[in-house]
Amino acid sequence: MVEDRKTIVIKEIKYWKKHNMLPNAYCDFLLALYTEGEEIANPTKKQQIIPVLILISNLLLLTLTLLVIYFTQLEMILQISILLFLVTASYLIFHFSKQKSTLLSQFTLTVLLLIVFLVLVYLASLFGNYLVINFLIALNCLLWIGIGLYKKLIYITIPGFIGLLLLIIFVL
After folding, report:
1. Is the CA virtual torsion 152, 154, 155, 157 positive or negative?
2. pTM for the complete prediction?
3. Each residue of 142-166: pLDDT tens digit?
4. Closest listed residue to residue 99, CA positions, set 6, 14, 2, 18
5. Are residues 131 and 51 in the same domain?
6. What is the DSSP letter of 73?
């Protein structure tokens, strides 16, 4: 009877973790407590390979973004379509990785912000003048500062402030 209760509690904790009803650290602690360390110590192959795939796909998306912007001479519509696809793919990977480890989701957020920054500056340079480019860079720096303060990520907040400061110095 005690084992049945234990399995029910373990299933409930896994449900809470899957649906983000409790922070992952709490769920991991409770799972380690009720499974006597067996649940956390033995991750499945799928659990081990997914973070690696997310990391590789992020690096590939960032590389493809740089290649499309700087090393291709495609039609403008095709190039913009590819860049929008890469931004969307990066956002989807970020959305998927939010359920995984905190470090992985932070890395994915950083890559997403970099890709958005590169694409916005490139599009502004295609269609606008320096005033538009400066406005978009300032907007992007404010976005970095806002996200960094909201999520309490200092490594996103500081580059936002530095970028904004450098932009102000450059404009003046």
Report:
1. positive
2. 0.72
3. 999 999 999 888 999 999 999 999 9
4. 18
5. yes
6. -
